[in-house]
Amino acid sequence: MRYALKKLISAIVTLFVVSVAVFFAFAVIPGDPALRKLGTQATPEALEMMRSRMGLDQPLPVRYVQWVAAFFTGDMGTSFSYDIPVGTLLGDKLPVTGFLVLFSFVLLVVLSIPLSIWHAKHENSRLDRAMLVAGQVIMAVPPFFMGILLTFFFGIVLKLFTPGGYVSWQTDPGRFLAYLFWPSLAIALPRVAMTVKLFRAEMLREAGRDYVRTAYSRGHSTMDVLYRHVLKNAFLPLLTFLAMNLTDMVAGSVVIEQVFGIPGFGRFLLVSILGRDYPVVEAIIMGLTAFIILVNLVTDLLYRAIDPRIEEAS
Amino acid sequence: MNDNALLTVQDLQIDFHDHQTPETAVYDFDLTVFPGEIVGIVGESGAGKSLSALAVAGLLKRHSEIRAGNILFEDEDLLHCGREILRSYQGDEIAVIFQEPMSSLDPLMRVGLQVEESLVVHHPEIDAAERKRRALEAIRSVGMEDAERVYSSYPHELSGGMRQRCMIAAAMIAEPKILIADEPTTALDVTVQAQIIELLKRINREKRTAILFISHDLSLVKQLCERVIVMKDGRIVEEGDTLRIFEHPKHAYTRELISAIPRVEKKEKQAKDQDRDLLLAVSGLDAGYGRIPADNEAGKKRLFSLRADGRQILYDVSFSLHAGEILGLAGESGSGKSTLAKTILGMIPKLRGEIRWEKKSGAAMVFQDPYGSLNPAHTVGWILTEALTKGKRRNFPEDEKALHDRLVQSLEQVELPEAFLERRPSELSGGQRQRVAIAEALISNPDVLIADEPVSALDVTVQAQIITLLEKLREETGIAILIIAHDLRVLYRICDRVLIMKKGRIVEQGNVEKIYFDPQQPYTKELLRAAGIRTNGEPDMTNGSRM
Question: What value of ipTM does the predicted structure carry?
């Protein structure tokens, strides 16, 4: 309980610090949103009026407090570029990117864990070594290029999907998911290769431990030793790695959304930064921060659930 | 071959494949164990004793391979029966316990479930409730009354002794015919060691389980085994009835092993004059780690406050050290021996009390692990030079020649030849490394040498050599030595006085003869008894006067 409270307080502190940093960073970055909006031809009077309408004439601390206070009521401000509430704007994009990242993560876990187990079982076989080399190559391919390769082979050559044929989830959830499979794979594949490399090594290291010898001394088969003892122990260091990947995948999705023409918030973020659409950018950054804090919290709790050696006090 | 034998091993040869060319690690190993018998295998590290025993249990690691021989368990040829049949014996008829009870248990699994494992494998017909009942019974039968709590504990929540008891409970749950014990007490404190030996004896007596006991410790083998096999460099050098071997060892190596055990027999140590210079006086010393709670706020916990999460280790420690004296510090793990050494050297701040160095004298330290404490990337010459420059500046020789002479002289002191200057630590044996570590400590001419378990990682014959070296250094240089050891025999051999430490307090101190032959405190008596040392004029158990 004390632990949960502590975590909650530190999460709030983190969010506060990030919010201050984000807000003031955008305030000092050169570039005038009003000028952007009205164009270089605008008269000084018109600019002044626009600034005042956008609330830019207020002192910074006042603007910060207003912004934060509005956040608590669910009002994330109004987009400078579109004159639409940020909440409404993001409401369309969030599920798209969310699904993309979730799908990639599921693929990562579903592909890498069985593959790693296979590798560990067949350590130093010819196929094991060949696939490690293949993994090394896949690891080196950047996701956007992986996306292009997938589009070419599976989209254009094999015609398994229509490149650029994104279907929104409101229209047809089935076809939406079918289309998202390919960009998700592009995001997941290099990470699968990395995860397999790590998890395989962890399992082999655990396999050399004394408790594994003990398990064999009781007459366990190799499979039993693996599933009863090795897997859980080897999984511990993997947990942090997977969590890092999950947060990293959000960043990866920005590029992949471009390659596959998906209207998620990745593309939207780029446009908003270039257009100095501060309310949008700030809302996205705050959302990402909250997401990362949440992932870390869940990781922490999972560690506590799996490893009895982590005590309440630490 | 004997029809009654439980286990027969013939002409076993085991090869190592670690390097390019296979090396033979065990040659022509023969062994017969009869039902209900306790057989010991002794030898120093690298003798092949564990390897032979693990081969019998079918547990060789991937780099070792059985090249020749037979292993018969009752009528089954374990080497050629195939993995499935071998597995049906493992854990059911042949059980094993290992040296490290911590790492030999799965850290993420409740101990009770691990105790049950052999039943899960070999007796799937037994349901979970009955398995648990048997596990609790097994845990109780190895001397732990609080079976329910132990059952649901994780390994890290138990002490070393309890973990080894759990390993034994797990090994015994399927009632095997033979228990292979590979150095089962080496990692344990001496009092716990004695309890485990008693437990093994009782199991053997009550269940008629044969025991194959592997150890480097002859005194343990003598306490436990009826028959003993002595191994050296992969070969059996001598075999026979334990008493016969101890009283009339035939092979030179066996004699060397036996004589290397420090004897504890009343002797007239030449009385050292008491008015030698006082070097170090410690009085009323309290020390510990971290932020230590003051008495009035102990137990109070606040959110986000800098919690007093430290722990006091030393309580009211007082002693003195004189020039040319060898002072022993004995106690079990966790008693605060190493903390005391570090506090004296100023590596841990003291809380209260006084540490008074009489002369402006230097102290140097030697550690237990000669593998970890020497920088592996450099030559011995570099390491010694480094130690010299960090010492008193005025000692540093002016030119190359003088430096070289100084280094050679330093090696001579620890009886190593000049050629060692060019060697790296990885090229040295454990004993040689410890000699280099001593040379490194002595090169800055300290008045006090603090040696923390300097011989406990070494084989018994090497131990004897290092102890002799330390005695010689004391005679030659008049250096005072504070030696920390859990091995009371080693301390008796070398020390003038000893301090007995328990839970951070010195419970008894005085002249060795007095402490060993007329101990006053119950704890001192317990320690001595556990080490097999009889007090009050009784003859020493391990090295009887008949030898």
Answer: 0.80
